[in-house]
Amino acid sequence: MIDSISLAKFNDKQQRIVAHLYSRLDGKVYFKSRQIAAELGLSPKEVGANMAGIQERDEDLNLIIEKWGRSKSVTWKVTAAESDSAAS
């Protein structure tokens, strides 16, 4: 789960994207930029630019975000990271 402290370092669009990812995350999920864009009222380009920013600072979100592929839209692989306590 995310908290306001974790989200404080992200801009409004990034916060919306993170909330969207968490609402659909179940282990490992693939998201297309254009699908996220359509659901959040953003352009795919905005989603891609903001996903890159989220990816750079994802350590506090317990997410692993990878740019996975390109076809007609960039695909992002999002995985719930194991917490330190679960890994021990």
Features:
88 residues, alpha+beta, 5 helices, 3 strands, 48% helix
Rg, nearest Å: 13 Å
CATH architecture: Orthogonal Bundle
Helix content: 40-55%
Quick check: average pLDDT?
A: 83
Instruction: Decide which structural class fits the backbone.
Output: alpha+beta
In angstroms, what separates the terminal alpha carbons?
20 Å
Task: Provide the domain count.
Answer: 1
Q: CATH class, anyone? A: Mainly Alpha
* The CATH fourth-level homologous superfamily: Winged helix-like DNA-binding domain superfamily/Winged helix DNA-binding domain
Describe the protein.
The chain has a single domain (4-81), classed as Arc Repressor Mutant, subunit A (Orthogonal Bundle). The chain has five helices and three strands. It has helices at residues 4-7, 12-24, 33-40, 44-56, 84-87; strands at 28-32, 63-70, 74-80. A three-stranded antiparallel sheet has the order 1-3-2. Helix 2 packs across helix 4 (44-56) and helix 3 (33-40) crosses helix 4.
